[in-house]
Amino acid sequence: MKATINKLLEYSTREYDIFFHLPRRLRLKGAGAVFFFYLSIVCLSHLALRPFLNGRAEADSFLLQLYAGFLVVAVVSILPILFPPFRRYRWVVMYLSFFWGLLLALFYAVSINQVLMDQPVGVTVKVVWATGFLAIVLGLTLYASVLKAVVAEKSLMEAEIQVARRIQIQLVPELEQDDELCQIYGKSLPAREVGGDFFDVVRLSETRMAVAIGDVSGHNIAAGLLMAILKGAFRTELQYTTNLEHLARSLNRTILENSDKQMFVSFMCGIFDFGENSLTMVNAGHLPLLQYRAQKGEAVQWNPAGMAFGLSKSAKYQLQKTFYKTDDVFLFITDGLEESANPAGEEYGLERIQQF
Question: pLDDT confidence of 246, banded at 50, 70, 90?
């Protein structure tokens, strides 16, 4: 018997653990929910008994016991939610003591209904009262069990998302470089905790530099993982080849091997040659590269043909080459900038970006 009671106490304590993973504001809301739950029960009980209580001298005494009993249960149920010390054994014992004490009070209240209702009340009615009250407690316990599992799963997921976000920040850090050859600035702001956008800059030699930008479909952990795979593969391939056509085909195979059919990656890469002031580029279904020609005061788009990675094994990619002069600006972007909207819901659009 002692072992059974200890297990029951341990179970009751464990069910309240759910509330201590929540912020205080949510615990207050949970306590309020429990209080109003019990209040609704006692109010409905009052309404149900009202026809029998009208004009009875014993009515006030009965209602006082009814409201007092439910108030005690509500308070004792709320205390473990708000204050961690109440989870200890002695408080759970107190909770169970009040619980059984209230049952006895209910038995007494039903007994005095013989006077209120002018009819005898047998054991069956008392059992129904006890069963109803036990059903309330069981319902709350089951609800807490389900809610506990949901919160635990959500907490684990949020922890994993935060880890993934920190990893993404390390993989795609804010970039700012300024030397005699060029000025570079890059920044990624995920729409959610973890996104699929990435950019990278790799120095190939003293006079050559590769710049890449990509966008994995979706905004979730899977997109972030595929982005990490793409960036790793990109840097690895650059160690063996700087032929952008070969590079694009190899990255396409990598994405096909590491993603499902619902995911794809748009990608743009350009290699700057500072010796001849040129840029050679390849595009895999990404937004056009924008070049601002400072001397002419105009912006042009570069969009060599190519299919996004992960869509077809036989995808082909074309190269384009352009030359630039001092003070020219090249803009590598993802659709997050293009699709950013004002309060009216109007998207910024590529045309506005080009005008800017």
Answer: very high
pTM over 0.90: no
Q: Look at residue 89 and tell me whether its pLDDT is greater than 50.
A: no
| DSSP string of 87-124, one letter each residue | GSHHHHHHHHHHHHHHHHHHHHHHHHHHHHSSS---HH
- Per DSSP, 341 falls in state B
- Structure-token match 């409201």, residue found: 67
Q: 3-class SS at 356?
A: coil
Bridge partners of 321, per DSSP, are 280
Domains (range + CATH), the chain: 2-165 (no CATH), 174-355 (3.60.40.10)
282, 245 contact by CB (below 8 A): yes
Spatial CB neighbours of 178, under 8 Å, sequence gap ≥ 6 = 184
Q: Specify whether the CB–CB gap between 268 and 212 falls below 8 A.
A: yes
Q: Dig out the tokens for 145 from the structure.
A: 């069990």
Q: Residue 302 CB: number of other CB atoms within 10 A?
A: 17
Average pLDDT, the chain: 73
